[in-house]
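User: Assemble these into one structure.

Assistant: Restating your components, then the assembled model:
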Amino acid sequence: MSLRCSVLALAVLWVGCAGPQVRRDSLEGWSEAETRGVRLIADARGEELDAIASDLSSLHATFTYLLGRDITSSVPTTIVLIRDPERAKRFGLRGRLGFAWSTLEGSFAVVSLDRRAVQTRITLFHEYTHLLLWRHRNALIARWYTEGLADYFSTVAFRDGALVVGALPADRLAWLIQRGHPMPLDQLFGGDRDATLRGRAIYDFYSTAWALTHYLLATPKGRAELSRFEKELAKGTALDAAREAAFGRSFERLTQELTTHLGYLARGAAAESILDPRQVRLTQPVPAAPMHPDAVADALGSVALSLASEDEGESEYAPIARAYLEAAVAEGAAANAPARAALAHVRALEGDADGAEATLAEALRDAPGDFSVQLAAGHVALARGAADEAEAHFRRALALDERSAPAWFGLGRALARAGQADHARNALERARSLGWSAGLDLELGRLHVEAHRVSEARALLQPLAGDPHGGKIAEQAAELLKQLDATDAADPS
Amino acid sequence: MRSVRALIGLVSLAATTALGCALFFGPDNTLVPGNEGAPGVKRFLVCAPNTVIALPAELVAVTRPLRDQIDAYLRFQGREAQWIDLYESRRLWGQAMTAAKAQGALEKTPAFFAKELDELYDFDAIVMPSVVLHKATGTGGTARWDGVERHMRVLNAPRRDPGTMTIEFGGLDGDLMVTSVHVLVFSRGGERVFEGRGGIELIHEIDLAAFKKKKNLDVRVREDLGRDVDALREGIAIAFDPYLPPPEE
């Protein structure tokens, strides 16, 4: 081996000609573990990840105990824990310690691996609670509700011979005490992005969502009220009517109660629930195992691809996905057709049609009967506007897995692009019977708008547009609603 | 998303002071006369840490060393210590509160609690220890509270070149977040005979790694909270004084 080759082999492997580069040494030292159907991937050694997996398993067991049943997932769940601050930023951890998202193909979370194990656990529990809440849903869950519950369960802990649920997150309580009052509740429930996500409002929003959830979950009456209120809002009841139906009192009165509750907490009242740990059936996770660099690259690339696909169109995550998937293929996953198909998908998202086709051709040649290859082939065809070809690939995918929500979703999109609106709607409805995603509701809502089915369109689009955290999907839903309003104004009949 | 938590380093210093303000600016240790040295008390029944006082989730790892060191301190004092786990102690405390409320006399809760415990355990006195989070006034990074003095740890301080005039970072002034041990001792009949506190440690440390470039002070929560055994031992000894006088040295 020449000196130059040795240096290349021993030092770093730079992959990709543009965008972020993946150093080979950054793919070393990773571990993976599995617990309760959740795949944990961490920039950590086995012992550290074992402790994290054990914590997560205990949270899952706590949920199972509290609900009286297990919450299983129909899609794979992957959680990535990242220690390196620069990598964390690339994966969206700027100014936040974690976030979660759920698609038809899988559930994901990215969590910062903090210096303090307790902080990592709190963040992990927060994000995992989101993922659990999103399982088996068939509509958008109000953001204040899911954030409040996620904070509430983020502090679950086994300590001193008890299971403690609802312990105080000191920063949330401290924020509210410093502010002197919670966020007005009508703003919490119905505020737009500016009212809930700008400047100090974001801290008011999260802290008040936690405090209200903490207050209401403390009593059976409060739990019933909270549940009723959320259900009323989910079925489209107007805010004031939902309040009256659930609480039977004004927001001012509820705010007074909440302020009193916060006063007790500020004085150190132990308001958490202490449960008998013997009632909770804990299971030991599978021990963590070291990961090969190509598996790390493949996993990180797939997670970034999921983020890029969620964004639709230009995404900051697409170059990251490409860099990692290219590294995966270069590192030894070349024999892995799904990895190459995923790489083709991300190249298509970036507008590199030729690169996508070339990579996809190899994957299709090696594994034409692979479900994920056919699915990716459908996405690649859709990205370059070949609706008929996309339809064929999605139908092949469905022939391999007839109950695949993403394949039905893809088919629906392909049919819609081909102008077959009725067939497209049927396919999307089928996808919706098998899973849920905001993107799916947006696509279906768009078809309803085009067919001027006003009530169906509004039912799907209004929750999406009203989600202050909804990003591009919320913006597109709002745009479609505007179109609907304009059409209504022009033709009131 | 958990954006608020990202601020814990800088914001909590200012924000959580309000929490401390409302919390424990308690009295000096108070002892019912005649109980100096815990006469006649051989067997302590000790409740799990923070049975009746909230423990912030961020401090959950502190209770194990607290328990170990209180156990060691009581034995050092020549006493026996029997512990009740958190589930049991909270359950029994809850029952005692219900019974006291039924009589319209909430202040009798400890008496009912002691009575319930007496039916289950052999003991001479009950100890209820807690870790409490509050604020203390700091000057130049040094704070004094509940009988201790601690200096805020500074990491990555810029090196001073010999022979050059530089201004040394002196530490933070203002309200600093700190922890203390709080103990309540009840007689076998449920009479409160002692209440005391002893300081443990500062919650934050300062990292000056980014100071030279960005003039940025990173005030962050310490990684090793609860692991400074010497600080914990000192706090426990102060918290129990004069009920259990600390050793000469």
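The first strand of chain A starts at residue 31 and ends at 35.
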